[in-house]
Amino acid sequence: MRHLRAAVAILILVWALPAASALNIFACTPEWGALAKELGGAKTNVYVATTALQDPHRIEARPSLIARARSADLMVCTGAELEVGWLPLVRTQSGNARIQSGQPGYFEAATHADLLEKPARLDRAAGDVHAAGNPHLHLDPRNIARVAIAMSERMAQLDPRQSAQYREGAKAFLDRWQRAIARWEKAAAPLKGFPVVIHHKNLSYLIGWLGMREVGALEPRPGLPPTAAHLNELLARLARDPAKAVMRAAYNDPRPGDWLAGRARIPSVVLPYTVGGTEVAQDLFGLFDDTLARLLEAAR
Amino acid sequence: MHRSTLCAMALAVVWSAPLPVRAQGAELSMIREEIRQLKDAYEKRIQGLERRLAEAESRAGKTEHDAARAATVVAHPGARAGGENAFNPAISLILQGTAARSSQDPETYRISGFAPSGGEIAPASRGANLGESELVVTANIDPYFRGLLIAALTPENEVEVEEAFFQTLALDHGLTLKGGRFLSGIGYQNEVHQHSWDFQDAPLAYKAFLGGRRNDDGVQLKWVAPTDLFIEFGAELGRGRSFPSTARSRNAAGAWTVFAHVGGDIGTGTAWRAGLSHLRTSPRGRAFEDADSLGNPVTQSFSGRSRLWIADFVLKWAPGGNAAKTNFKLQGEYFRRREDGQLSFDDTARAAPRFGAVLSDTYASLQSGWYLQSVYQFMPRWRIGYRYDRLNFGRVDNGIVANGLGPTAGDFPLLMSDHRPARSTLMFDWSPTEFSRIRLQLASDKSRVGLTDHQALIQYIFSLGAHGAHRF
Ligand SMILES: [Zn+2]
C-alpha cells in the first residue's frame, strides 16, 4: 500500500508540473511551421515534421513524430486528408489529449480556406483523389493570410498570457504580407494566361491565383506515377495546344518533367513548393519571391 | 501488483475528465473580439483584392481554365452534409488471395524440434486459395474513446474477430489504455496487420513461438515519455487465450507482457525503432498430437511456466526521407523462450498401449530463433525483398526420456528432433497504387527435419474504402 501511495504522489506531481513557458507547436508541413514562427516568434517552439523535399502524401508515422506529438500544445496541419496516411496514428499513439480531434490543440488550415477541385463524384478509379478537395492550398498567398488570422486566434486561445504578442505578430505579418501580395501580383502580370504542364495537382492554387493556364499533368491520374504512354500522349497534345513550361515541385521526380520539357523544347521549372524547397525559399516571403522569379525567368 | 495496476488505471480515467479552462475569461473574450475585428478588416481587404483581380480577369477575357476553376469552387467547407449517415465510421475492406505450388504438402506442415503452436502457420495451400477478407470499421466513439473492429471472413466461411478494442484518447500525459482483443505490442511485426506484411507469411520465429501472431483478450497500458527521443513503455494483462498460453477459467490474468520501444531519426533520411519485449504465461495441459517411434498416435501435454523474450529493430531509409521513388527497409527480431514444468506422454487411447499408463515427468527447454529481412523499392511501384529465418533447437531436458520411464527420444519426433529449421524467402511485388499489390514469392523452407519444401506463390492484396493509416 505504501508503494501505491508513493506512485500516486509521483503521478500527481508530474501532472501538476507547470507547462513549459513557450507554446510547443507541431507543424505537419513546412509552410505551416513557417507561418507559426512568423506569428509566434520567440513565444513558440516550432517542430516541423516534414521537409519540402518529402512528398507530403507519402509520410510515415515514424517514432520521432510520435515523440514530438506527445509534447505538442498545438498541432498545425493542412487537413483535407493530406495527412490521412500518418497523422491519425501519430495522434492516437502520442497519448496527448490536447491534439485530438475537436480539441483546440488541433488546427487544420483547410477549414479556413475554400478548397478547389472538390470532386463531384468519389471514385478511386479516378486516381488517389483528395475527397475533400485539393489540399495544396498554401500556394495562393491569400489563403496564407486567411490561415494566419485563424492560427493566431488559436495560439492566443491556447496561450492567453501571450495573446497580445500573437495579435501583434499577426498584425505585423499581415501588413507585410499584404504589401508583398501587391508586389507579387504586380510582378506576375506577364504570367496571366501562361500555359503550363504540371506534375501533380499540387500547384493548382498557384495557377489559379496568377491566372495561369494548366494544359495538362504528368500524372495520368492524381497520385499515379507518370507512364511512358501518358507522356507520349501529352507530348502529342502539346503539339496542338503548346505549353510554355513544365512545372514541378522540388519533391517531385525530375525525370518525367525533364523528358517532356526536352522533347517539347520548353523550360522545365522546379518550384520550391514550400518553405525549404530551394536555397532562397527559407521563409514564406522567400517561397513566393523565388516561385515568381523562377516562373518569370521561364516566361521571358 | 494487480490491485495497484487497477487503481492506477482508475485514477488515470478520473484524471482524463475535462479540466476547466484556466484562462481568465474576460481577457480572453476581449482578445477574441480584437482578433475578430482584425479578421473582418483583413477579409475586406482580401475581398477587395479578389474583386480587383476578378475585374482584371474579366477585362482580359475569361480563359477556359477559369471557367473550370469556378465550377469546382465550393461553398465554405464548414458547411458539411448532415443526416444520420454523417457519423458513419470509416470502413475499409481488404481482399486477398493466393495461388501456390509447393514440393511438400502444406497439410503436413510442422516445425521439427518445436512444440506445435496451434496457430494458422502452414504455408499457403496448394492451388488457388482465397485469403482472409478483412472488414475494418473504426471511428471516434466520443471525445474520450476510439473504437475499432477487424473481422476476418475466412475462406472456410467463418467469421473471426481479429481485433475489437476501445482505446482512450483523453488520458493525456502520454498514456493510452486499450481494452478488448488487440494485436499485442510485443515484438515489431506482431502489431503490423497481415495485409501490410512484406511477405505473404509470418517469420518462422513467430510461427514457432507465437502461433503466427499474438492477439489476446485483455487490456494494454502504454506510456510515451515526454522526450524528443521516442521512448515508450507498455504492459498488457491478458486472458492468455492462445499459444503459448492455454485458455483457462480463472479469476486472474492468464498471461502478461511488458515491452519498451526506443526510436528516432538519423538525419532526414533514416528512421529507426528498437524494442525489447517479455511475455510470461503458465499454460496448463497444453496438448498436441504426435506419433511415437512406431508411428502410433500419442498425446503429449505440457503444464508449467513459459517465458519469452523478444528483441526487435527496424530501420527505414529513403533519399532525403522522400519514400515516393526509392526506399529501403531492414527489419530483424530475435526470440528466446524458456519453458519448465511437467510433460505428460499418453498413448492410452490406443487399443494396445505400449506403456499402459499416462507417463509424466519434468520438462525444461531453452530455444531461440531469429529472422532478418530487407525490402527495397527500386523504382516507384516495384519492390524486391529477401528474408532469412532460423530457429535453434537449443537445449531440451525431457525427464521422461532421461529418467528411463520407457519412451526414448525417438518417441518424441516433434519435441526432440535436434533440428535447426531454416528458410530463405525471396519476394517481388508490384503496387499500382497504395490500394493494390500483386506479389510473387519464392521460398526454400527447411522447417521439417530432413526435408526441403520449395514454395512458389502469387498473392494479391486489395484494399477498398477508407484510406487507413499505416504503422511505422
Ligand atoms: Zn495532392
In short:
Chain A has 10 helices and 8 strands. Chain A has helices at residues 2-16, 30-40, 63-70, 87-94, 141-158, 163-187, 204-210, 228-240, 254-264, 284-299, and strands at residues 23-27, 44-48, 74-77, 106-108, 195-198, 213-217, 245-249, 268-271. Chain B has a single domain, classed as Porin (Beta Barrel), CATH 2.40.160.10.
Q: Which key features would you list for this structure?
A:
heterodimer; A: 300 residues; alpha/beta; Rossmann fold; 2 domains; 4-stranded parallel sheet; 10 helices; 12% strand; globular; B: mainly beta; 15% helix; disordered N terminus; binds zinc ion
Report on the structure:
- The complex is a heterodimer of chains A (300) and B (472).
- By secondary structure, chain A is an alpha/beta fold.
- Chain A has helices spanning 2-16, 30-40, 63-70, 87-94, 141-158, 163-187, 204-210, 228-240, 254-264, 284-299; strands spanning 23-27, 44-48, 74-77, 106-108, 195-198, 213-217, 245-249, 268-271.
- Chain A has two domains: 23-183, Nitrogenase molybdenum iron protein domain (Rossmann fold, 3-Layer(aba) Sandwich); 188-299, 3-Layer(aba) Sandwich (Rossmann fold), CATH 3.40.50.
- Chain A is 44% helix and 12% strand.
- In chain A, helix 2 (30-40) crosses helix 5, helix 6 (163-187) packs parallel to helix 10 (284-299) and helix 8 (228-240) runs parallel beside helix 9 (254-264).
- The longest helix of chain A has 25 residues, at 163-187.
- Chain B is mainly beta and 472 residues long.
- Chain B has a single domain, classed as Porin, CATH 2.40.160.
- Chain B has helices at 2-15, 25-60, 64-72, 204-210, 399-402; strands spanning 90-102, 127-130, 133-142, 145-153, 159-168, 175-181, 217-224, 230-238, 255-266, 270-281, 286-291, 297-317, 327-346, 359-379, 382-398, 422-433, 436-446, 453-465.
- Chain B has a 16-stranded antiparallel beta barrel.
- Classes of the chains: A alpha/beta (300), B mainly beta (472).
- Zinc ion binds next to loops of chain A.
- Zinc ion is lined by residues 57, 130, 136, 200-202 of chain A.
